[in-house]
Amino acid sequence: MKGLARLELRYGRYAIKNLTLYIAAVNLAVFLLSIFPQAPNVIFLLGLDPARIINKLELWRIVTFVFIPETFSIIWILFSVYFIYMVGAALEQYWGKFRLNVYYFTGMLGSIIASFIVYIFAGGGMMTGYYLNMSLFLAYATLFPEQEFLIFFVLPVKAKYLGALDALFLIVMMISSLQIGAWYNAIAIIVAMINYLIFFGGDFINWIKLKRQVSENRRRFFDQVRPYKDNRKY
Questions:
Q1: Domain boundaries in the chain?
Q2: Can you state the angle between helices 183-192 and 159-179, rounded to 10 degrees?
Q3: Domain 11-223 sits in which CATH superfamily?
Q4: Are 61 and 48 in contact (CB under 8 A)?
Q5: Spatial separation of the C-alpha atoms in residues 98 and 104, rounded to whole Å
Q6: Rg, the chain, Cα only
Q7: How many angstroms separate the CA atoms of 136 and 58, rounded?
Q8: How far apart are CA 186 and CA 109, in angstroms?
């Protein structure tokens, strides 16, 4: 991504270091605030709701939706925020802070556009940072496929398999949406994952081309060997 390298030279100094540490910390803070009896509904207040953005001018929602915790379970919240930080820290170490910033904020933009797509065609569109966090993990699983996670603290599973399950889940969601005529949901999912497609789509296309070339070379080899075997005398 040569264009990204040029942008980094020009704007890299503005990138936020330890971005996902701050995101994870605010997620935890929002969770702690939500447990008070008089606390407002966090999802309703912070969620990406196109209707309220347009009609009520609640513009903060285009940012605050990423601060909604993945879980409101007091048992799992620490694992959730640590997971966001850990994945983001690994990506930042691999890419550098600028590229992680670009990846994350592109994912935010994708989620915003996806939310408005659903709003335009279905009147809904409330969204949290679900797809954004999933795109972070898919990037992690692509770059660190052999890294293992202990599921339920006992079962080691490699990141590439967990990433494949996430990708399969997205595909099933898109197919299900198309089957019920909600094509806009399928498009919204693709748009919400645009950061992953931009960063890794080219690699997958090249991988597919390479597999096809290897298959074609193998076929040609056996086509050449087969006549020799057929004509060979014993």
A1: 11-223
A2: 150
A3: Rhomboid-like (1.20.1540.10)
A4: yes
A5: 10
A6: 22
A7: 27
A8: 17
Q: What one-letter code names the amino acid at 226?
A: R
CA distances to 86, 148, 182, 192 from 154, rounded to whole Å, are 19, 11, 39, 33
DSSP-derived 3-state class of residue 52: helix
- Reading the chain (234 residues) residue by residue, the pLDDT tens digits are 678 888 999 999 999 999 999 999 999 999 998 888 777 788 889 999 999 999 999 999 999 999 999 988 988 899 999 999 999 999 999 999 999 999 999 999 999 999 999 999 998 878 899 999 999 999 999 999 999 998 877 889 999 999 999 999 999 999 999 999 999 999 999 999 999 999 998 766 776 776 677 767 777 766 776 665 556 555
Q: What's the pTM value of the predicted model, to 2 decimals?
A: 0.86
Q: Is residue 150 classed as helix, strand or coil in its secondary structure?
A: strand
CB atoms within 10 A of CB 181: 8
